[in-house]
Amino acid sequence: MKKQNEEVPVGYVHSLETFGSVDGPGVRFLIFLTGCGMRCQYCHNPDTWKMSVGTPYTADELIQSAIKYRSYWGSKGGITVSGGDPLLQIDFLLDLCKKAKKENIHVTIDTSGNPFTRQEPYFGKFQELIQYVDLFLLDIKHIDDEKHKELTACSNENILDMARYLSDIGKPVWVRHVLVPEKTDDDDDLHKLRTFLDSLQNVEKVEVLSYHTLGVKKWRDMGMDYPLEGIDAPTQVRIANAKEILEK
Questions:
Q1: Residue 72 lies in a domain
Q2: What pTM was estimated for this model as a whole?
Q3: What does each of the 248 residues of the chain score in pLDDT, given as a tens digit?
Q4: Considering the domain boundaries, does residue 24 fall inside one?
């Protein structure tokens, strides 16, 4: 029973999608939270960076919205919480995932891993959170730390640490890698990433995602210069090469 003065966590939501089919198994109700600490040069949703721009929701409101579409999920579908990066809103995320599991809903979290730390109080909250999460979609932007900093303005050390931790506890993970010409498609780097993935025991699937320029207009609308101006989507040959290395 909730104490009289206990505050209900509020999450800030960018958007909702009722019939997602590529962010986890089956048909999924997608919740895109706002807030992201990374500044990926190819980000197609820079409008999610600031948490303050989101629409406030309680976990109960989102669960009730999601359940309306439960009949479409089948045996594999459920809820995927994405962003931005949902791990930035860990208090709300914990409340949401707890309540989803009470409804026997399959929960997937799509994250870059950037907010992860073993420092308290965050790590204790994360350890509790993972009890209610069935699957993580982990976006590894670059395996090389210096190139990762150039691409995202952040280190990847804590991201790889999160991957190792999830492996140690046996939590299922799908790894995603966005293939960007001149940035993330070097063969040596792809092989290094594959070697890292081979050291993990919990990777069920690896997905190579093709870079696209659909977010350029948002950058311009927000008055920002697009960092990858002039870089086109990867060729089918380079995509096939990356898939051969990473998805084996």
A1: yes
A2: 0.94
A3: 344 446 889 999 999 999 999 999 999 999 999 999 999 999 988 999 998 889 999 999 999 999 999 999 998 999 999 999 999 999 999 999 999 999 999 999 999 999 999 999 999 999 999 999 999 999 999 999 999 999 999 999 999 999 999 999 999 999 999 999 999 999 999 999 999 999 999 999 999 999 998 889 899 999 999 999 999 999 999 999 999 999 97
A4: yes
| 4 found inside a domain | no
Contact (Cβ atoms closer than 8 angstroms) between residue 106 and residue 66: no
Residue 214's domain is classified under what CATH number?
Answer: 3.20.20.70
Count of domains in the chain?
A: 1
Encoding tokens for residue 15?
Answer: 């958007």
DSSP conformation letters of 2-15: --TTPPPPEEEEEE
Give how far the C-alpha of residue 181 lies from the chain's centroid of Cα atoms, to the nearest Å.
21
**Structural domain harbouring 89:** 10-246
